[in-house]
Design a protein that fits this description.
- Two copies of one chain form a homodimer.
- Chain A contains six helices and ten strands; from the N terminus they run ββββαββαβαβααββα.
- With 230 residues, the first copy, chain A, is an alpha+beta fold.
- The model of chain A has no long low-confidence stretch (mean pLDDT 93).
- Chains A and B meet through helix 1, strand 5 and strand 6 of A and helix 1, strand 5 and strand 6 of B.
- The structure holds a DNA duplex (27 and 27 nucleotides).
- Chains A, B: One of its GO terms (molecular function) is hydrolase activity.
- Chains A, B: Pfam families: NUDIX, WHD_NrtR.
- Chains A, B: This is NUDIX hydrolase.
DNA sequence: GCAAAAGTGTTTAATTTACACCCATGG
DNA sequence: CCATGGGTGTAAATTAAACACTTTTGC
């Protein structure tokens, strides 16, 4: 039974801004667009909403179809609805950003996806309003990363505090005092030090750490909250 | 020239969570729904996106058509896209919240709009996922109000510091130390004291203040930023 | 004069900041 | 033995929290 008798139905899409981290740089995963118009130009990964899925599910599906990645951190950040934003046909799109472990992602990414990582500091011109979307996604990521422990999604399971600092410096584009940064981390019981060192970058070796979601959940229930200002 | 050959086109709507402030209470403007299904039940103000307008424009139009209000603060906070959120037909809706001066709004609101203010602490069951939307809008308002000077949108042009404090207490549902609150405000040059007192609530009278956007814009360029934690 | 809201000041504790310093080790 | 990244400690400065205090004025 239909009660709404409106003719106007725009297309609805989702677009994913996919962040990765490697060698101290925050990166973005872009693809060459494979349909007209603008075939071959740089674009975020997107797709149209289907009848059987929610927006969140659509974003996860697009991500999996195009990269093979599952169970990644995904957050909606904004809907974009300018009349002419898509030159071919009116399309309202909902922007999501994803945080992936770039090392792991690389394994999944088969070459025919035509996907490429580019540093966030050097994003090429993208189709439509995608550059604007990237900017909005980054802003949201910055905010989320200061207030919630989502940064870990960009790192491997095991990471050193120096890596973590480097990540935050990349996200915020600033440099951080190592002493102060580490002191704050030391108070977070949900950051568990492992009995293993990373000896790749120094003679002394750096302890590996691990984020333990269960401990964080408990700390949160007790009123503690995550805060890492740049 | 159409390049996309997809059949699935959901309806796209916008819904407005309208906040007002009166007598120390943060309120929400609700309407009785005037179409089936769920005719007569409490609902946010919404409407369908039209061909010629952006999402932002649609939200402003819906607000004006239903309340007569123009030039109000409107911010998009989230898109909602669960498959069955609207029982009649698949509809993706984009949530906006509005901040209005309730005194001014009351003048505009003609009675046949069937609109009613209810305190945010006592929101009745709403249709579909509208209660969830209200919760999300409130969260966003709380965040915005701590980091940007948007609270003033809920007050008349001239207001006292006591009113401002009461507003923040209502937004956050906490009580605030008057001394500390005022000390922080004293440092904000863009809060200008007028040569006029409000004598309605005390024998001594309280100075009226005014928010001066130009001065704030300049302060912001110089790196100052607004911060009012609850 | 006194109640009650408006408004100021002061003391103490907690955080932040900047930096100096020690540690471990492969070459 | 020393250069280098890893890691700790601390003093000074800033900010936040709690609360005592003064001011004004209609009744």
């Amino acid at each position: 039974m239909k009660s709404y008798d409106y003719a106007y139905r725009p297309l609805v899409a989702v677009d994913c801004t996919i962040f990765g981290f490697r060698n101290g740089k925050l990166n973005l995963l872009l693809v060459r667009r494979d349909i007209e118009p603008r075939r071959g130009e740089w674009s975020l990964m997107g797709g149209f909403l289907q009848a059987h899925e929610s927006l969140d599910e659509a974003a996860a599906r697009v991500l999996e179809q195009r990269t093979g990645l599952q169970d990644v951190y995904l957050e909606q950040f904004k809907a974009f609805g300018a009349v002419d934003r898509d030159e071919a046909e009116r399309t309202v799109t909902v922007g999501y950003y994803a945080l992936v472990d770039q090392d792991e992602a690389e394994v999944q990414l088969s070459s025919d996806y035509a996907a490429h990582w580019v540093p966030i500091t050097d994003v090429p011109p993208l189709i439509f309003d995608h550059n604007e979307m990237v900017e909005a996604a980054l802003q949201r990521l910055r905010h989320r990363a200061t207030h919630e422990p989502v940064g870990f999604e960009l790192l491997p399971e095991k990471f050193t505090l120096t890596q973590l600092q480097s990540l935050y410096e990349a996200i915020f584009g600033t440099s951080i005092d190592a002493g102060n940064f580490r002191r704050r981390l030391r108070k977070m019981e949900y950051l568990q030090r492992l009995n293993e060192k990373d000896t790749n970058t120094s003679r002394k070796g750096a302890w590996y750490y691990q984020f333990v979601p269960e401990v964080y959940a408990m700390a949160k229930r007790n009123g503690a909250d995550f805060l890492l200002k740049p």
